Amino acid sequence: MNGLLEHSAHCPFCDAQLTLLIDTSAGADHSYTEDCHVCCQPILIHLHQDSDGHWDISLEQE
Ligand SMILES: [Zn+2]
User: Fold this and answer.
1) Ligand 1 centre and the CA of 49: distance in Å?
2) What average pLDDT does range 15-29 have in this prediction?
3) Beta partners for 48?
4) pTM
5) What is the total count of domains within the chain?
6) Separation of 51 CA from ligand 1 center, angstroms?
């Protein structure tokens, strides 16, 4: 099963457009940190899958 989901988002620090590769096999409700490839700040990424299978993804400053 392919557990990678591509998601476009903006960096909460520098507002650069980012393409995130989300590892959906890690669970329906988890968060992780990824450094912005533009400004190198740590972005906290929250993932939540609702009951109809839609992924809700939010980014915030760590
Ligand atoms: Zn950034």
Assistant:
1) 25
2) 91
3) 29, 56
4) 0.85
5) 1
6) 31
